[in-house]
Design goal:
heterodimer, A: 45% helix, B: 171 residues, alpha/beta, 4-stranded parallel beta sheet, 14% strand, elongated
Chain lengths: 155, 171
């Protein structure tokens, strides 16, 4: 189990720090030079009722990083945003996902979350925002909808 | 809370951008790499070396433009490896525009289980909980060697802190 956990290491502070440095330093490969970072949080960045204590604490921390990094991000001309997906079937939700489906509830799809990631990274008006991606609530509509909250209003 | 409608026309702005995605050999990371690549972006799939075959399958089978994608092996709890991944991305594509720090892992056992006691009835340390915090937020542990170095650093820091900030009560 520990090996499984180690295999999925994605340390956010390390990635954020290196990303800021290299985005500032390197040139853009497209005509517009907007640079951005997306940190993948979770609905557990906001809520804590699921019982996965360490996960909730760590994901709350990702939102803290978003807020704390805004001055440095602005100073270096980089936009930083968070995507906070609701339950999305991936290798880390095996088991949990099945219970969810057994109840007849709808999950996010990785593709839906990817669209939210692309949206915040490409929309130059967004910085310091956190978008909660919840297919379970609105998944039956024809359009993919995110609940967005402006994290920078909460700082 | 405002609702945000996904505007797919925005995705064409990804053309020719260079996007580094950590943990992209699987799950949300893979879907993100596929979406950016489909819209003309260069993508760097950064993941553990053990996922090389998986990542190369992703590039071959799931990406619209396999020629605009590379896999870079990086255990990103390792500062040097992740730094090398960024450098490789810039070397290959000439720059970098977007970074997606695709976060992590979840514990599988209840952290606040107070029944987890040893033969003397003492509560056991929950290593898994610490690891989730380290992985999702700090990323300090990886191998036994790194763990050892981490503890060595903690000891050195403690010694340093003790020397630098002596207890006021003893002053």
């Amino acid at each position: 189990m520990i090996d499984d956990i180690q295999s999925a290491n994605r340390p956010t502070i390390t990635a954020l720090r290196l990303a800021l440095f290299f985005l500032k330093k390197s040139s853009s490969t497209s005509p517009d030079s907007s640079k951005s970072i997306v940190l993948v949080g979770s609905t557990s960045s906001y809520f804590g009722g699921t019982g996965v204590t360490a996960y909730v604490a760590s994901k709350h921390g990702v939102l803290g990083l978003l807020r704390a990094c805004q001055p440095a991000a602005k100073q270096n001309g980089v936009r930083v945003n968070v995507i906070a997906p609701f339950l999305t079937p991936t290798q880390i939700t095996v088991g949990f996902s099945q219970k969810w489906r057994d109840e007849g509830l709808e999950e996010n799809t990785p593709q839906g979350v990817a669209e939210a990631i692309a949206t915040v990274s490409l929309d130059e008006s967004r910085t310091g925002h956190s978008l909660m991606v919840s297919m379970a609530i609105h998944g039956r509509s024809r359009h993919k909808i995110c609940h967005g909250s402006r994290a920078n209003e909460l700082v | 809370m405002a609702q945000v409608q996904i505007d797919q026309s925005l995705f064409s702005n990804a053309a020719n951008k260079t996007v580094l995605i950590t943990g992209a050999a699987r799950g949300i990371g893979t879907a993100t790499a596929a979406l950016f690549n489909e819209n003309g972006a260069n993508v760097i799939i950064a993941d553990l070396a053990q996922f090389r075959d998986v990542a190369e399958e992703v590039i071959k089978n799931d990406l619209a433009f396999p020629g605009k994608a590379i896999f870079v092996p990086a255990n990103i709890v390792d500062w040097v490896q992740l730094r090398a991944a960024f450098k490789k991305a810039i070397d290959v594509f000439g720059g970098i525009d977007i970074v997606v720090a695709n976060a992590g892992i979840m514990e599988r056992e209840t952290v606040l289980n107070l029944e987890d006691v040893d033969e003397n009835g003492e509560l056991r340390e929950n290593a898994e909980a610490s690891r989730v915090i380290d992985v999702n937020l700090k990323g300090t542990f990886n191998s036994k060697l790194l763990t050892f170095i981490h503890y060595l650093q903690l000891v050195l820091y403690f010694v340093y802190a003790t020397c630098a900030f002596p207890d006021e009560s003893s002053a």
